[in-house]
Amino acid sequence: MSLPPPIRRIKLCYVTDRKALSGSREEQTRLLQEKIESAARAGVDWIQIREKDLRGRELVALVGEAVRRVPRSCRILVNDRLDVAILAGAGGVHLGEQSVPVEDAKRFVREKNAGQNLLVGMSTHSLESAQTAESGGADYIIFGPVFVTPSKAAFGPPQGLDRLAKACAGASIPVIAIGGITMQNVSDCVRAGVSGIAAIRLFQDTSDMAGLVQKLRQG
């Protein structure tokens, strides 16, 4: 009897949104740190800290604490702020389409010897943007929104699975799907060729992080 093919391991990326958590500002920060630690210990590979309203001092403190709390198997990424990523000892910086160009960020990391393992990734919302990010030297791209989601409504209509598949086929770097990712459509993304999935609510709203990660790993 032939064995089924092994399940391809995809990267799981939890994108944070502490303001969606309940309580005061201090309580939200405490709950977020607990979510980050829980996700990392459950086996989430990357955690993108996306707290755009925080000032530099607050963000460095938040990221630094996250780095101290998570096991080395989990990589902390900082949204947009390369300076904070370096100062707090994070594992990477995640740029937007309106951030500093990928090639400039990569050059800065090299020239300042800021960390050989520091990833520089980019959010992309079209096939053209995905190609530009790769040609600029991005280590990975996050592509989306793939499905309808309130958090990505500002980036236009969903790209859909066909464009996701084209982005994956045309890239030699990891492509991470984002936007409306649920347990019901993860397998569709995997079939499209993604290297991983990224989500806010899928991870942040669960009451059983370990169980969620296990189900995602099972495809």
Which characteristics define this entry?
alpha/beta; 219 residues; 9 helices; 8 strands; 8-stranded parallel β-barrel
Mind sketching the topology for me?
Blueprint: E1 11-15, H1 25-42, E2 46-49, H2 56-69, E3 75-79, H3 82-87, E4 92-95, H4 102-111, E5 119-124, H5 127-135, E6 140-143, H6 160-169, E7 175-178, H7 186-192, E8 196-199, H8 201-204, H9 209-217
Parallel strand pairs: 1-2, 1-8, 2-3, 3-4, 4-5, 5-6, 6-7, 7-8
Please work out how many helical segments DSSP would assign. Answer: 9
Helix content: 25-40%
What is the CATH third-level topology name?
TIM Barrel
Question: Could you say what the CATH architecture is?
Answer: Alpha-Beta Barrel
Q: Biggest β-sheet: count, sense, barrel?
A: 8 strands, parallel, barrel
What is the residue-averaged pLDDT? 92
Low-confidence stretches: 1-6
Oligomer class: single chain
What is the terminal separation in angstroms?
Answer: 22 Å
The coarse overall form would be globular
What is the CATH C level class, in words?
A: Alpha Beta
CATH H level, superfamily name? Aldolase class I
Report the structural category.
alpha/beta
The SSE string, one letter per element, is: EHEHEHEHEHEHEHEHH
Proportion of β residues?
A: 15-25%
Strand arrangement, largest sheet?
A: 1-2-3-4-5-6-7-8
